[in-house]
Write a structure and sequence with these properties.
- It is a multi-pass membrane protein.
- Keywords: Membrane, Transmembrane, Transmembrane helix.
- This protein has one domain.
- Helix content is 77%, strand content 0%.
- It has helices at residues 2-12, 16-53, 63-94, 98-109, 121-144, 151-173, 179-188, 190-204, 213-231, 239-247.
- The model is unreliable at 240-252 (pLDDT under 50).
């Protein structure tokens, strides 16, 4: 099941809709990071530099060189910080386009199934924030354990397999189910979801390729949700349709 879901996700990754979602998310990520660069640079020039100027003249003659070196060092640290933020920021922004990805997978691979429903804007924003938190946590964990061989690798894959599998599977399931039902389905198939999360974690571990992580994760988990639902007897009607059905036919 994992192999089938992964192969379908990789196949869809090169389709025009996926490329469009990738370039949109990457473009917005670049705009955010460039804006952040200028904002931090302005903060350094208007706050940090004037503050330092108050005590630098009291230093020896090399103070001006030290100030210049500090500026270069600040720029280097900022560049490293922005490189670290590429993955998390792209994950958060790509979260806004995941419904587009899910719709393509459902339409192309499962035409016989009822179409899912886009998440409300508030839920979509909340999921994007959660995706951001998941990626940040995984990267911080890897950084904290950088000097501990083997342990850092095991911890990185264990944590990210669980978190990525959980969040993206529940996203796919919530296109057809309530949040409570999506969580219950994920718990019933926790081993399968964890294995799917491990595949996603492999993408997260590769620089540059990790920019594709949100799209790969969404496509893989949409496929996995469809396959798991088939095993359980089929997909339910999306939540909106279930509420309409429960209300019964209207009487004039």
């Amino acid at each position: 099941m994992i192999g089938l879901a992964a192969s379908r996700a990789l196949r869809d990754l090169f389709s025009p809709p996926f490329r469009a979602a990738f370039w949109k998310s990457l473009g917005l990520t670049a705009l955010v990071l460039v804006g952040l660069w200028f904002a931090v640079e302005a903060l350094f020039e208007r706050v940090a530099a004037p503050w330092a100027a108050g005590w630098l003249p009291a230093l020896p003659a090399w103070a001006s060189d030290a100030e210049r070196a500090a500026g270069w060092l600040a720029g280097l640290l900022l560049a490293i910080a922005l490189a670290f933020l590429i993955g998390p920021v792209s994950a958060a922004i790509a979260g806004l386009f995941l419904d587009d990805v899910a719709e393509v997978v459902e339409r192309e691979c499962y035409p016989e199934a009822p179409p899912g429903r886009e998440l409300p804007l508030a839920a979509s924003l909340r999921l994007s924030a959660k995706f951001l938190g998941v990626i940040v946590l995984g990267n911080l964990l890897a950084f904290a354990l950088l000097l501990v061989p083997v342990v850092n690798l095991v911890a990185f894959f264990a944590v990210n397999s669980y978190l990525l599998g959980r969040e993206y599977f529940e996203f796919a399931a919530m296109r057809y189910r309530t949040e409570h039902d999506a969580k219950a389905l994920r718990r019933r198939h926790r081993g399968t979801v964890l294995a799917g999360g491990a595949v996603v974690a492999c993408f997260l571990a590769v620089p540059v390729v990790n920019l594709l992580t949100p799209l790969v994760a969404a496509a893989l988990m949409v496929n996995l949700h469809q396959l798991v639902s088939r095993r359980e007897g089929g997909l339910p009607a999306p939540p909106v349709e279930r509420r309409i059905a429960a209300a019964g036919p209207r009487s004039d």
